[in-house]
UniProtKB/TrEMBL annotation:
One of its GO terms (biological process) is NAD+ catabolic process. One of its GO terms (molecular function) is 5'-(N(7)-methylguanosine 5'-triphospho)-[mRNA] hydrolase activity. InterPro entries: NAD-cap_RNA_hydrolase_NudC, Nudix_hydrolase, NUDIX_hydrolase-like_dom_sf, NUDIX_hydrolase_dom, Nudt17_dom. Its cofactor is Mg(2+); Mn(2+). This is m7GpppN-mRNA hydrolase NUDT17. Signal peptide: none annotated. Keywords: Hydrolase, Magnesium, Manganese, Metal-binding. Acts as a decapping enzyme capable of hydrolyzing monomethylated capped RNAs (in vitro). Hydrolyzes monomethylated capped RNA after alpha and beta phosphates to form N(7)-methyl-GDP. Shows low activity towards unmethylated capped RNA. Residues 88-243 form the Nudix hydrolase domain. It holds the Pfam family NUDIX. PANTHER family: NUCLEOSIDE DIPHOSPHATE-LINKED MOIETY X MOTIF 17 (PTHR42904:SF1), NUDIX HYDROLASE, NUDC SUBFAMILY (PTHR42904).
Length: 301
């Protein structure tokens, strides 16, 4: 039953018939040359199968994995130690929404600490694609379920920014892989400002406390600082004169919003190599936000 309910990744390469991707298979590695961590692909959702093809450089969508991707570094012994029911899962498909307001802010949410995957980590709203949905349908549904923002298709201009190969736990030092996704980061351009998306508006921000514990509207200056904190990298993060803290909306267990502040240092934290995870912006989100910044530069030309 589980296989029937989930949209899975299929790959097609060099004209061969498409095949369902295996859980322990790196999709980025499958299409890249020389073990590179980024490649361009074309994608389609057909008959509840998400199919990926390699694209010519400059003509596709970027697909990327982190340099520390657990699937990339998985040994034969480690792969065989993954429980059989996990190995048979295949690779799931998710959509995450980069919602850009008219005043060029994007919405980030902090995942509830009770969630099994990436708890207490900052991400855009998103989730799994369900059978018979389009990618946009899935993104709008997840946006509403997680944040209360109900936007209609005719109210937004959608564009796929990129695809991210996400594995949880995100590093082998934290345990063997339990989940493997291709996350589609979709940019939605709204004609509303973030100030308009208030409880008095029909498209009101009212996050689900089961999934979201806080949210914030990030401007390009904050986003540049976030993406400069490259996970797995070193060196100083460029904060560009940002204040020490920023305004966020905390979500109570009943779903009420309250004004609060968050140290900027939390949002520019890097993923720790070992030990427990920390509150931070996810690696995939940084990838998508960097693409968003590039889209702003293109739109200004």
């Amino acid at each position: 039953m589980d296989k029937m309910r989930r949209i899975l990744v299929y790959v097609c390469k060099d004209g061969a018939a498409q095949q369902r991707a295996q859980f322990v298979q790196s999709i980025t590695g499958h299409f890249s040359d020389g073990g590179r961590d980024e490649v361009e692909v074309n994608c389609s959702l057909d008959k509840n199968q998400f199919v990926l093809h390699r694209a010519e450089r400059g003509r596709g969508i970027p697909l990327q994995r982190p340099a520390f991707c657990p699937i990339k570094h998985l040994s034969v012994t480690e792969a065989s130690a993954i429980p059989l029911d996990v190995q048979q899962r295949g690779i799931d498909v998710g959509v995450a929404i980069i919602l850009q307001t008219a005043n060029q802010r994007v919405l980030l949410t902090r995942r509830a600490k009770e969630l099994r995957i990436f708890p207490n980590v900052w991400v855009p709203p998103g989730g799994h694609v369900e059978p018979d949905e389009t990618l946009l349908d899935a993104g709008l549904r997840e946006l509403q379920e997680e944040t209360g923002l109900k936007l209609e298709q005719q109210e937004v201009s959608p564009k796929i920014l990129g695809l991210w190969e996400s594995v949880y736990p995100p590093m082998l030092s934290r345990g063997l892989p339990q989940r493997h996704h291709i996350v589609i980061y979709m940019l939605l351009l709204s004609s509303l400002t973030c100030d308009s998306l208030t409880p008095s508006c029909c498209a009101s921000l009212s996050p689900s406390p089961a999934e979201v514990s806080a949210c914030l509207w990030a401007d390009s200056r904050l986003v540049r600082a976030i993406v400069s904190a490259v996970d797995g990298g070193e060196g100083e993060v460029q904060v560009d004169g940002l204040p020490g803290s920023i305004s966020v909306s905390q979500v109570s267990t009943e779903g009420a919003l309250s004004d609060s502040t968050l140290p900027v240092s939390v949002l520019i934290s890097r993923a720790p190599v070992s030990g427990p995870d920390v509150e931070r912006v996810s690696t995939g989100t940084k990838f998508a936000l960097e693409l968003w910044l590039k889209s702003l530069e293109t739109s200004d030309l």
